[in-house]
TrEMBL record:
It holds the Pfam family OprD. Belongs to the outer membrane porin (Opr) (TC 1.B.25) family. Residues 1-20 form the signal peptide. The keyword Transport applies. This is Porin. Keywords: Signal, Transport.
Length: 465
C-alpha cells in the first residue's frame, strides 16, 4: 500500500500523517501533539472624571494555566480523524471587586473552561484534502485569534487542492464558531445587538460580534446579529487562491461570503527575499466589504427608518527588513476611510476573528475603525549575536489618527498612541518565555474631558510537545 500523507493544519504546528494498512494500525500509528501555556496579565486603568468611574484608577489582573492536547489517526485508505481538547484554568483567586478581575484569559464570568475545539474526519486523494467537522481555519476574516490562552475554532467543511503548479485553492463552508476568552474584553450587555450601544459597535470592529459565547459553538448569524436574532442563515462560504510562481512573490485573493450579511474581498501581494544586505518582507493588501442578500446587519442598524448598507474598505502596506547581525525594522501603514451613514460609518466589520489589518497592538485594535489612519514603527534586535542567548527584544510605537466617522464613537475624533516592549526568550526549541509591557495613551477621548488610558504587563510561558 502506498504511503499517503496529510498536512494537519493546527494552531501551533504541522504534523505528517503516517499511513496504515488496517483500521487498528490507523489508531496505533496515530500521533499526539499538545502544548502547555501559562499566562499572567495585569492592566491598570486610568479613567478621567468625565466617565464617573469610582475609583477612577484601578488595576485588574489574571493568572491562568492550560493548553491543548490533540490526537490524529494515521491515514487509512485516505481517511483519517482527529480531535483537539483545549482548556484554560484560573489559578489566582477571583476578587469580590469585579473591577479587579481580568476575564480575557477565561470563560464567562471569569471561570475556567474547557472545550473540544476540534473533532473532524478528513479524506485525502492525490492533491485534494476534504475535512469535515470542528477544525481550525485561518482566513482574513475568520481565524484563531489566539491572543490570550486559547484559539477560536470553527465547524464546517474545508476543501484544499494543489493540482496546479505553484497554486493552492481553498474552499470552505462554516456554520458555527467557538469564540475564545479574549472576547470578554468587549462585554456586550446580554449579548444583544443594540446599534446605540458602544460595546455592540466595538465588538463588531474588534473581531467578536455581539452574540459570542466564550467556549461554545454558536451559529454565524447569532454571533453577528446577537442572541436576540431570529433569522437563520447559511453561515459563511469562502474561496481563496494563492499563487507562488514568481520568485519570492505570493499573490492571494480571498472571497468570504457571509450569507445575508456581507461579502468580503481581500487581495494581497507579498514579497520575501534578500535585497542587498537586507532580509526583506514586504506586503500590501486591499479589503472591500458590501452587504448581500437580506442585508440583516444593515436592517439591525436601522435606527432612523432606513436600512443601512455595509460599505467599508481598507488598505495597508508593510515593510520588514533585518540584517544578519540581528537588527531589524518593522514599518506599517493602514488606512480605513469613512463611509458616513453606512453600518459603523465604514469601519471594518468582523465577528469571527482574523488579523487582516497589518496593525494590531496590544492595547488597541483601532486600525479597523472608520475614518482612521494607523502607523506602526518598530525596531528589534536578537541578543543571541552578542550573548549567545536567544532573546529577541522588540520596541514598537503605534499611532491611530481617528476621525469623527469612526463607527465606535462617531462624532468624536482623537489620537491614540501606544508603546510596546517585548522580550522573547527561546529557552529550547519547544519552550519559550515572553515578557511584555504596553503603555496606551488616550485609548478613548470623548471631547477632551472623558479619557481612558492604561498600562499593561504580561508574562507568558509556552511549551509544545
Amino acid at each position: 500500500m502506498k504511503k499517503r500523507s496529510l498536512v494537519l493544519a493546527t494552531v501551533l504546528g504541522l504534523t505528517t500523517i503516517v499511513s496504515a494498512d488496517t483500521l487498528k494500525d490507523a489508531f496505533k500509528k496515530g500521533t499526539v501533539q499538545g502544548g502547555l501555556k501559562s499566562f499572567y496579565i495585569s492592566r491598570t486603568y486610568d479613567w478621567e472624571s468625565g466617565f464617573g468611574k469610582n475609583p477612577s484608577k484601578y488595576t485588574r489582573d489574571g493568572l491562568s494555566f492550560g493548553g491543548y492536547l490533540g490526537y490524529q489517526t494515521a491515514s487509512y485508505y485516505g481517511f483519517d480523524a482527529g480531535a483537539t481538547f483545549y482548556t484554560t484554568n484560573k489559578v489566582d483567586n477571583k476578587s469580590d471587586n469585579t473591577l479587579k478581575n481580568d476575564n480575557t484569559l477565561f470563560g464567562a464570568d471569569g471561570r475556567s473552561y474547557s472545550v473540544l475545539g476540534e473533532a473532524y474526519i478528513s479524506y485525502t486523494l492525490a492533491n485534494t484534502n476534504i475535512r469535515v467537522g470542528r477544525q481550525s481555519i485561518n482566513t482574513p476574516f475568520a481565524a484563531p485569534n489566539n491572543f490570550r490562552m486559547l484559539p477560536n475554532t470553527f465547524e464546517g467543511v474545508v476543501v484544499k487542492n494543489s493540482d496546479i503548479a505553484d497554486t493552492k485553492f481553498e474552499l470552505g463552508h462554516i456554520t458555527r464558531v467557538q469564540t475564545n476568552g479574549f472576547a470578554n474584553s468587549v462585554p456586550v450587555p446580554n449579548n444583544v445587538l443594540n446599534p446605540n450601544d458602544a460595546m455592540t459597535r466595538l465588538s463588531l470592529l474588534y473581531g467578536f460580534g455581539p452574540g459570542y459565547k466564550v467556549g461554545e459553538f454558536e451559529s454565524i448569524a447569532d454571533v453577528y446579529l446577537g442572541q436576540n436574532n431570529k433569522k437563520n442563515t447559511a453561515g459563511m462560504t469562502y474561496l481563496s487562491t494563492t499563487y507562488t510562481g514568481f520568485d519570492g512573490i505570493k499573490l492571494e485573493i480571498w472571497d468570504q461570503y457571509i450569507h445575508d450579511i456581507m461579502n468580503i474581498i481581500v487581495a494581497k501581494v507579498s514579497y520575501k527575499g534578500r535585497l542587498s544586505v537586507f532580509n526583506t518582507f514586504a506586503s500590501m493588501f486591499y479589503t472591500k466589504q458590501d452587504n448581500v442578500g437580506d442585508n440583516l446587519l444593515g436592517k439591525a442598524f436601522n435606527t432612523a427608518g432606513d436600512d443601512k448598507d455595509v460599505d467599508a474598505s481598507q488598505c495597508g502596506a508593510m515593510l520588514k527588513a533585518s540584517l544578519n547581525n540581528g537588527f531589524g525594522i518593522d514599518l506599517r501603514y493602514v488606512n480605513t476611510p469613512a463611509s458616513q451613514g453606512s453600518v459603523l460609518d465604514g469601519g471594518i466589520i468582523n465577528a469571527l476573528g482574523g488579523a487582516n489589518p497589518f496593525i494590531i497592538s496590544q492595547g488597541a485594535l483601532h486600525a479597523n475603525l472608520g475614518d482612521t489612519s494607523s502607523i506602526l514603527l518598530g525596531v528589534n534586535y536578537n541578543l543571541k549575536h552578542l550573548t549567545g542567548v536567544d532573546i529577541l527584544a522588540m520596541l514598537k510605537y503605534f499611532e491611530y489618527d481617528i476621525g469623527k466617522y469612526n463607527g465606535y464613537q462617531s462624532g468624536y475624533e482623537w489620537e491614540t498612541k501606544e508603546f510596546d516592549f517585548d522580550l522573547v526568550y527561546q529557552v529550547r526549541s519547544k519552550f519559550k518565555l515572553q515578557a511584555r509591557g504596553s503603555f496606551t495613551k488616550d485609548w478613548l477621548d470623548l471631547g477632551g474631558t472623558k479619557k481612558l488610558s492604561f498600562d499593561e504587563y504580561r508574562l507568558i510561558a509556552y511549551y509544545k510537545f
